[in-house]
Design brief:
Layout lengths: L2 H27 L6 H4 L3 E8 L1 H4 L4 E2 L2 E2 L13 E4 L5 E3 L19 H11 L5 E6 L7 H4 L4 H14 L3 E9 L8 H21 L7 E5 L8 H9 L6 E5 L14 H17 L20
Parallel strand pairs: 1-6, 1-7, 4-6, 7-8, 8-9
Antiparallel strand pairs: 2-3, 4-5
The structure holds 2-acetamido-2-deoxy-beta-D-glucopyranose (2 copies).
Length: about 290
Amino acid sequence: MTCSESKVLLLVSMSALLWLLFLAFAGFVRPAPAMATSDFLYKNIFILAGQSNMAGRGGVVDNKWDGIVPFQCQPNPSILRLDAGLRWVRAAEPLHADIEHNKTSGVGPGMAFANAVKSKDSSIGVIGLVPCAVGGTNISEWMKGNHLYEQMVRRAQAALQEGGTIQAILWYQGESDTENREDAMTYKRRMVKLIADWRADLQSPNLRIIQVVLASGMGPFVGIVRRGQLGIDQPNVVSVDAMGLPLEEDGLHLTTAAQVRLGQMLANAFLNGMPSSPSTSNAQRICYPFFC
Ligand SMILES: *[C@@H]1O[C@H](CO)[C@@H](O)[C@H](O)[C@H]1NC(C)=O
Ligand SMILES: *[C@@H]1O[C@H](CO)[C@@H](O)[C@H](O)[C@H]1NC(C)=O
């Protein structure tokens, strides 16, 4: 091998090495998918399910959202949401925009809830919201075997993939079951079954359920559904009563201000356990990963 030949060889192998180094490095600095840094963080996961008042109609008039986001509902780098494509992204109003097809989502309780939990418990870490609510749905459509149930369980399982615990299901539904007496009368029985199925399928027998007791309805039997909700006597089921919160002109949907208030009430219910429940002895200490 001549001197110039070995120089060429050296040059070729050096550039090959550099190229390999470049490829290896490029592998690490590829454009990051949304929220890559938070993906593998432990998350306190909350499932948001139910119908329009959970999905959020605050600020929606004539199928248009006014775009007003109160400061209690502003995004925070450690509040994420699982989007319709099962990716964690930074949460922002309207939380259900890509979950509800062909409906106009506005402000719901989710962001106000997450911000209130964070402000009352700064040690909580990352909150992962899993929006699943769809407007106009009755409880039959949420029962096991039906699409909404399966979709919710699938999203809940996907949310757990990269670390975390489902801390609670926040449930606000029943307005559609106030239209006929029969549905209103069977609400409690259906809800008890739904809770049992969730807990079985999510393998979390003590999973906390925070249910909102109706403020309004689409029919005359709101009182019967409310009585059913308040009569559910199960461990780790907490009720938050929305009655009296301000409604939009439609008389059905909570206003943005009401949703902020509701989010704070849900946060208090979550952080305080179940003071009003007869089964307080079943209350578990809320345990956060880095502090217990
Ligand atoms: C949404 O609306 C479009 C057009 O009106 C319709 O084709 C589609 O099936 C609707 N999707 C759902 C999920 O209802
Ligand atoms: C619930 O809603 C579905 C879809 O709109 C409807 O087909 C069904 O009859 C309703 N069920 C009850 C019990 O109201």
